């Protein structure tokens, strides 16, 4: 069972992503870029390694 913190103890998590060779916070993107970021397919290195070795 997961426990949740009370609302007054929570804090926002800043999400960063790599864009054109450098890292930027997603919150700094314009609305179009934020929408594009939500549609991206995310993967983990382990998943890719497993699929590439077959």
From TrEMBL:
It comes from the Bacteria. Residues 34-43 have a biased composition (Basic and acidic residues). Residues 44-54 have a biased composition (Polar residues). GO terms for biological process: DNA replication. InterPro entries: NrdD. GO terms for molecular function: ribonucleoside-triphosphate reductase (thioredoxin) activity. Residues 32-54 are annotated as: Disordered. This is Oxidoreductase. It comes from Entomomonas moraniae.
């Amino acid at each position: 069972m997961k426990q949740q913190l009370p609302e007054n103890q929570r804090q926002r998590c800043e999400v960063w992503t790599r864009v054109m060779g450098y890292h930027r916070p997603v919150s700094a993107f314009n609305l179009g870029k934020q929408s594009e970021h939500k549609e991206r397919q995310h993967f983990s290195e382990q998943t890719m390694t497993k699929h590439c070795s077959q």
